[in-house]
UniProtKB/TrEMBL annotation:
Keywords: rRNA processing. Pfam families: WGG. GO terms for biological process: maturation of SSU-rRNA from tricistronic rRNA transcript (SSU-rRNA, 5.8S rRNA, LSU-rRNA). Belongs to the TSR2 family. GO terms for cellular component: nucleus. This is Pre-rRNA-processing protein TSR2 homolog.
């Protein structure tokens, strides 16, 4: 997978930051595996809060990781969070799909903010 060079939160204008957070949240709201984990409280009673924390963690990953950013690192973050916070392993390929979507959204937000 190709790395993304030169992408940091300092390249963003203020509106792009909130757009990125909303886009991450939107992707997660359409992710069946994560939604099942939340609805069935696989992460306990605070499963919904854990999903909000995941949005924040992914946004922080984009904001604070030093370039280049690799989709595989984002996949690992998602996999570990689902395993540790929701006690679940998703093996349907959706982690990879979600990570790829998020990377594309990040790139689009960066280009749009220049």
């Amino acid at each position: 997978m190709e790395p993304i060079d030169g992408l940091t939160s300092t390249n963003y204008k203020a509106g792009s930051v909130s757009n990125l957070q909303m886009a991450i949240s939107s992707v997660f709201s359409r992710w069946d595996g994560l939604q099942m984990a939340i609805e069935n409280q696989w992460g306990g009673r605070d499963s919904h809060q854990k999903s909000l924390n995941l949005v924040s963690d992914v946004f922080s990953w984009f904001s604070h990781s030093k370039p280049p950013l690799y989709v595989e690192d984002l996949e690992n973050l998602l996999h570990e969070t689902l395993l540790l916070s929701f006690n679940t392993e998703i093996e349907d390929g959706s982690i990879e799909q979600v990570a790829e979507q998020l990377m594309m959204i990040y790139e689009e937000n960066l280009v749009g903010s220049r």
